[in-house]
Sequence to fold (362 residues):
Amino acid sequence: MGWAIFSTNHQPIKNQELQCFLQPIPSHRGSAPRDEEAVRSAAAAAAAGHPLPITPGRRKMAGSVDLPVVDLASPDVRAAADAVRKACVEHGFFYVSNHGVDGALLEALFAESRRFFQQPMEGKMALQRDSNHRGYTPPYAEKLDAASEFTGDLKESFYIGPDLNRWPSEELFPSWKDTMELYHSTTLAVGERILSLIALSLDLDAEFFHKVGALNCPSAFVRLLHYPGEVNESDRGNYGASAHSDYGMITLLATDGTPGLQICREKDRHPQLWEDVPHIDGTLIVNIGDLLERWTNCLFRSTLHRVVAVGKERYSVALFLDPNPDIVVRCFESCCNEANPPRFPPIKSGDYLKERLSATYK
Ligand SMILES: O=C(O)CCC(=O)C(=O)O
Ligand SMILES: [Fe+2]
Fold:
């Protein structure tokens, strides 16, 4: 049988051998040469009747995508689960409102993040990312699209895991640790609620992800992100975060309201159409990762996305909520049958995530 290791446009890659798992994201994941791509996306946007605003970075952009907003406080849980299913099938992205993350906590989180990234490089590098994948990553050290012609993405970031963290000095950052730990636990709880809706949307028990152990010491990482405002001439066409899909179950994203995030709903369509994901006050952005795409046999989309430079500094914070590393991700029975057999072999979550991460930092 030909297994697909990385999904592409929800079709299996025929005759792909298992060793391909060790390769970085293949080049068809959003890697058209930048000029050609700009022309193509402009043409597609024009054809679709979208306006083409020219950003300070002189990048042409398509229109905005109209993603659904799921109310997490809705008493009609069935309707919320149905809305989640529709969003995951059609877009792989949606917003959640009434999520319960306090505005004051978000304000404190962004203030701490700004203060950390505003330090001189020396202070940040003292907490450089370690082998446990915690800490600071400078600009250019990470390349989310392996096919990008640039050395690396423009962003800098800081990873905070469930434990074993590296913290800035308490003297300089007295409330940093408490703020980060509170944000970690708060968004983890929101993520668990979203996963319970996702389980219901797949006609599984609401507690499914708990029951199979995926949420027993899950691999949950908060990542603070900072994108520069001004970019050097040599970085013209480079991305804040180059095209990628997220690796795990779900991602919850808070932004400071600055635009830049774009999604491409049809990975293999040419020309690719990139659409802006506008900020909506009071909401978090949620997207599906590759492991959930595998679990659902590509019923749910792990959608390609990127962050373009918009000539303005940008801060965002992601929570990557991934399963316990020992969980084996195997196609749900409800998502396959004889006519639609599993497209991926079962895989241990930790093995999959480790390979994807190591490809990102080569
Ligand atoms: O900053 C953003 O808006 C997106 C970040 C992202 O896609 C990621 O870190 O995986
Ligand atoms: Fe992402």
Remarks:
- The radius of gyration is 20 Å.
- The longest strand covers residues 219-227.
